[in-house]
Amino acid sequence: MKDPVDALIIDLLEWIGPHERPYAEVLEVWRTSCPRLPVWEEANTRGYVDRCSAPGEPAYVMLTKRGAAHLQDALARRGASAARLQEQ
Question: CA of 73: how far to CAs of 8, 19, 31, 35, in Å?
């Protein structure tokens, strides 16, 4: 069975999308106290998201190039899988 965190990371990357989200909002929605589902932490470790801020401005989170590429690949695989199911 695949690691359930992988699917949740794709959900996180989709949720953030092509535009940045406020850091506080991301942590509010994606923080977990379950050590077996460290979605936010794992996305950071894998280099899929980046936290950015300017002096005097609230921090925000955005996808890195690596994160955007990973999301695009996952969505393409999902689309290919759905197409194969429809052919059956």
Answer: 15, 18, 25, 27
Give residue 45's Cα distance to chain centre. Answer: 12
Average pLDDT value for the chain: 84
| pTM as predicted | 0.80
Give yes or no for a contact between 19 and 62, defined as CB atoms under 8 angstroms apart: yes
Q: φ, ψ for residue 38 (rounded to 5)?
A: -85, 65
Residues of the domain holding 59: 4-87
CATH number of the domain bearing residue 40: 1.10.10.10
Q: How many domains does the chain have?
A: 1
Alpha carbon distance 69, 5 (integer Å): 18
Closest by CA position to 67, among listed 14, 29, 8, 2: 14
